[in-house]
């Protein structure tokens, strides 16, 4: 359906000195079936782990973003893998409770650690790691920060967590086949990040949007606010029987599920533009931007201030 290209080899960035400490050495091996994440079948052959609205903590072991399993006749694909090797291992255990078919593809919707740090649990002969063509650079430059954060927040539970970069890159569009089940991948221009990728299951029409869609959890801006608003408008014009958000319920109706997010992002832009127009400083942005949205979103206090600063950086020169 479109073009992609392969890296010569998969790049692995080793976990730092923390992994060699005696504390990490006492972590027991991951058990299997009783540690599997709970998956909901949202359409025939499409199973989703619905993550809690939480920050990374030992209680959730880094499983704080939705993860999806799509089962074909010959093989399966996993979309996103959690914020630690342990979270990925629990998703792998969930996959094995559904099917013993080989995992042909692990697809990352973007570079953020809650979607990629579990990749290490899925390394196996024949498994390809797939992402937007800009994702390797974006993840590589943040690798030390992401790994340090995982170790700081999870302690011994972060053992084995490392960066696994994709070896199959989507330039524009790509079609993957699981055996009588095609997945349609599309690389998008800068929005939530500069490496957002969506996955549509051609069999059921289910559309995995990653963090281009937040439902209930406040959106987080790490790309371009104007680009995200424009992309949402384009995506909303494309029909789908259901979509899987990066954070939120296992599946939601489309496009109505995008309206709250678009409202938040539009209010963020409006308030920051008004602050800039009156000569307000960037330091004021967290206190004035999108405050009428506070009661509508989980984790608002944690992420809205960052969004406000990012929006001010972007909009002060428009």
Structure write-up:
With 318 residues, the protein is α/β, with parallel strands linked by helices. The protein has a single domain (4-255), classed as Metallo-beta-lactamase, Chain A (4-Layer Sandwich). It is built from seven helices and 15 strands. The chain has helices at residues 85-98, 113-116, 135-154, 225-236, 259-277, 285-288, 300-315; strands spanning 4-6, 12-13, 39-43, 46-49, 67-71, 76-79, 103-107, 128-132, 163-164, 168-170, 173-177, 182-187, 197-201, 207-214, 243-247. The strands form three sheets. An eight-stranded mixed beta sheet has the order 1-10-8-7-6-5-4-3. It has a five-stranded mixed beta sheet with strand order 11-12-13-14-15, with no helix packed on it. It has a two-stranded antiparallel sheet with strand order 2-9. A hairpin with a 5-residue loop joins strand 13 (197-201) and strand 14. The radius of gyration is 19 Å and the shape is globular. It starts with a strand and ends with a helix.
């Amino acid at each position: 359906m479109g073009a992609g290209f392969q890296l010569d080899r998969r790049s692995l960035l080793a976990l730092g000195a923390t992994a060699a400490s005696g504390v990490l050495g006492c972590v027991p091996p991951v058990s299997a079936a009783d540690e599997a994440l709970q998956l909901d079948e949202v359409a025939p052959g499409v199973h989703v782990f619905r993550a809690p609205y939480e920050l990374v903590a030992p209680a959730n072991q880094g499983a704080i973003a939705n993860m999806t399993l799509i089962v074909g006749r010959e093989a399966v694909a996993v979309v996103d893998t959690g914020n630690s090797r342990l979270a990925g291992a629990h998703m792998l255990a969930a996959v094995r409770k559904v099917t013993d078919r080989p995992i042909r593809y692990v697809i990352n919707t973007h570079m953020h650690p809650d979607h990629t740090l579990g990749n290490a649990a899925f390394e196996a002969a024949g498994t390809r790691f797939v992402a937007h063509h800009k994702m390797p650079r974006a993840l590589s430059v943040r690798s030390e920060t992401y790994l340090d954060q995982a170790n700081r927040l999870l302690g011994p539970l972060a053992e084995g967590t490392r960066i696994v970069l994709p070896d199959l890159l989507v330039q524009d569009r790509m079609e993957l086949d699981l055996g009588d089940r095609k997945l349609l991948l599309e690389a998008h221009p800068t929005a939530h990040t500069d490496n957002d990728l969506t996955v549509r299951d051609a069999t059921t029409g289910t559309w995995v949007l990653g963090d281009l869609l937040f439902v209930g959890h406040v959106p987080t801006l790490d790309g371009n606010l104007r680009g995200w608003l424009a992309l949402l408008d384009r995506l909303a014009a494309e029909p789908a029987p259901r979509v899987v958000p990066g954070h939120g319920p296992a599946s939601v109706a489309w496009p109505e599920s995008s309206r709250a997010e678009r409202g938040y992002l539009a209010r963020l832009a409006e308030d920051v533009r008004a602050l800039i127009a009156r000569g307000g400083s960037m330091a004021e942005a967290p206190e004035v931007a999108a405050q009428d949205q506070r009661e509508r979103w989980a984790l608002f206090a944690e992420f809205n201030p960052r969004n406000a600063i990012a929006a001010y950086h972007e909009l002060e020169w428009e």
